[in-house]
Design brief:
Blueprint (H helix, E strand, L loop, with lengths): L6 E6 L5 E4 L7 E6 L2 H9 L2 H6 L5 H16 L1
Antiparallel strand pairs: 1-2, 1-3
Length: 75
C-alpha cells in the first residue's frame, strides 16, 4: 500500500473517456496505480481497472494510458 501522493489516478470522466489525472483533482470515478508502466500492465492483465470502473476497457485506451505513463516515467 502506498499513499495517494505516490500514485497516479486513472479517471473515468462523466463524458465517458478514461484518462490519466496527474493533478488528482478532476471530477469522475478514479482508480489509483503506482507510477510505472509495469503497474498498468499488471492492471490490464488482472482486469483491475475494468473491475474498478465496472465496464470493459478497449485496448486502445490501455495503449493511450501506456504512452502517458511512459512520458511521466521519463520525467
Amino acid at each position: 500500500m502506498k499513499g495517494k501522493k505516490e500514485m497516479l489516478r486513472v479517471l473515468k470522466t462523466t463524458e465517458g473517456p478514461i484518462v490519466l489525472d496527474v493533478t488528482g483533482k478532476k471530477n469522475g470515478r478514479g482508480a489509483y496505480l503506482c507510477k510505472s508502466v509495469e503497474c498498468l500492465k499488471k492492471a490490464k492483465k488482472n482486469k483491475g481497472l475494468e473491475r474498478s470502473f465496472k465496464m470493459s476497457i478497449p485496448n486502445e485506451v490501455y495503449e493511450d494510458l501506456e504512452k502517458e505513463f511512459g512520458e511521466i516515467e521519463a520525467e
